[in-house]
Amino acid sequence: MDKILFIVPPHISFDDFISPSFNVKTIQKKGRNYGSSFTDMPLGVLAMSAYVKKHTDAETRLVDFSIEINKLEDFDFNSFGDFFSSVLSTPRWVEYAPSIIAISALFTPSYRSVLDIAKCCRDIFPNSIIVAGGGVPTNLYKEIFRDSVCFDAFCYGEGEKPLLGLVKADDKLRYLEENPSWITRTKVEIGQSFQHEVIEDLDEIPFFDYGICELDDYGLNPAISAYASIDDKKHNFHVMTSRGCTHHCCFCSSHTVHGRRMRYYSIDRVRDDFKRLRDHLGAKTIVFQDDHFVADKQRAFKIIEIVKGLQITAVFQNGLALYALDRKMLEALKSAGLNQIVLAVESGSNRVLKEIMHKPLNLSIVKRVADDCRELGIYTNVNILLGLPGETKQDIEDTRSFLKTINANWFIILCATPLVGSEMLDICLKKNYLKGSYIDCDYKKTVVETEDFTAEYIKEMAYILNLELNFVENSDFRLGNYKMALKGFENAIRAKNDHAIAYYCGAKCYKELGNLDKALQYMNTAKIAAEEPFWRKYVDMFKIPI
Ligand code: B12
User: Fold this and answer.
1) Less crowded by CB within 10 Å, the N or C end of the chain?
2) Ligand 1 first shell, C-beta below 6 A
């Protein structure tokens, strides 16, 4: 019988964990600030675990290092490698003695951790088969083979069928060489190409194996606590009711793993799963991770009805395509308990949307959607990317002016990142636009530099737009919704406890709400924080009177 150990690396690089940049969320351990790692449930692992168990008697376990890091009271290691070793060499895992180690690598910031985990596993479990899958190995297998000798193979695209094949195979190394969804060093050396092996009917994957997660540990997920509108941060469960996305946005790389064609779980299956999550696992909130939930609007309506009928709350962590968000859809979402939404606007320039991003959105509908959401009491986060190859400073100014006219609750301003497998990376490589490694970068770092802008300019503009739209010109404050504005400011304070501008804006809210003591306290903190040169620069830039 095979024993599989799934391993999820931290979603953050060691450097970003130890020395978080000024523009990222942090967590505190023993009074010291560290970068924060999201802890969403690893759905790919849960799907593969369920699928393999359905067809074999394999045993499966999971170590999710993002969870392990968050649980530590103090981080007393010189490297992530030391930390991985300390966890994996405990009797719990040594005695489990996995025959297959299956590392899930979705994000390039975890690239080096993936290598370190494999090295550690090779040392502790010399006889195990070590494989990895996800977007990183699918797109960077040559680089990983170059940088590590510890892997037996990588999975190309989705892993349910390939992993099942591996578990069933008597001669596993031979199977890896023979199956076209597995990437081995030998095959790479002879220039062989690889094939996706997907499950067409997603209902064939059983109810996800949520049981391999230590469920309570996922409750304090920074990704969920970031939403000012969600009060019950616990009891949330991640789901994906479809795979694929038909769009060709230049910055996205999801298709390299899942393809562009939509595949769906049946409505009956979705209903059964949600009911089971609620009744057996205590789910109160369902967090949808679908890439394109509204691809089929009628289906989306049916799922919303299910959520409503079960009296649970829906959260859509990924942006929803605005063209599908007519009043009827928004009313349905609201009636199903949805109280926050991510609007995937991505740019405030029609030129950038059309000519650069290839994103099917006309800006004329954004204002209407944001206003409808406000009327219906749905909190809106607007996603914006700055710094795509071809974007000009004028485009960024157009975005800035446009966004100031939108009454969304919050704007998430990110620096465009050349993801492996994206068209954006191809362009950057072709035009020599990369001024740093694309391997470690996430949406807070900038590595793209073109004829139109420097990397530093984009990072700075992203931060300025964040301060301007979310604080200085906060629409909740402008429209007199001081309580909601305050929630956003206090969220920012929790993420960055010296945020002079958030304290200043919070003080103004407390004043409007009649809590003068608190207003004074916040104003004093703002003044002290504003003495720091970092904050003084922005306080002066926006002429804030502190
Ligand atoms: C949910 C999600 C998250 C969650 C994390 C989920 C988790 N713990 O797994 C959170 C919110 C934390 C997140 C964060 C980010 N995300 Co994200 N995320 C997603 C999303 C929407 C869904 C992932 C998912 O659950 N998929 C469903 C399951 C079924 O598929 P899967 O996980 O890919 O697993 C399958 C295969 O990959 C493969 N597989 C995976 N592991 C293994 C292991 C083995 C051994 C085998 C055989 C196979 C295998 O088989 C699985 C089953 O079919 C994807 C897009 C997508 N559709 O995948 C983006 C995606 C993965 N994210 C992306 C990005 C860019 C980010 C961020 C950088 C964004 C940011 N704002 O900073 C951060 C990175 C983390 C960080 N620095 O904080 C990119 C990744 C690109 C890259 N190369 O880095 C994606 C592809 C989106 C995109 N538009 O391109 N994300």
Assistant:
1) N
2) 11-12, 38, 40, 42-44, 47-48, 102-104, 106-109, 131-136, 155, 158-160, 162-163, 223, 240, 252-254, 257-258, 289, 291, 318, 419-420, 442-443
